[in-house]
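User: Please predict the structure of the protein below. I'd like the answer in structure-token form so I can feed it into my own downstream comparison script.

Assistant: Understood. Taking the following sequence of 119 residues as input:
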Amino acid sequence: QVHVVESGGGLVQVGGSLRLSCVASGRISSINAMAWYRQAPGKQRELVAAISSGGRTNYADSVKGRFTISGGNAKNTVYLQMNSLKPEDTAVYYCNADLSAGIGYYGYWGQGTQVTVSS
């Protein structure tokens, strides 16, 4: 069984910073990539940032230059450093791990962590 757990959300003022963490654990054979998504009320879930096992990253245009995704020393960990936060960054942030637990690769989701940016 695989578990994906996020942490680090909270309430922050405009212009502030937060750092999200995500850890994938369980019977993991290999991790292809990890990513952060977010979903604001009434909106679809959208990709925020992703990092491959080789370290390649990509970002949504709305967060480029403000957010940084990075992997931990343990390959099953990923962080999202969020700076210069805006009210429109308010959302539930979800971690997704594209991994193999034995046969094939599947995306596993965490339960989400709330980020609220107040103005």
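That's the full token string. DSSP finds no helices and eleven strands in the chain.
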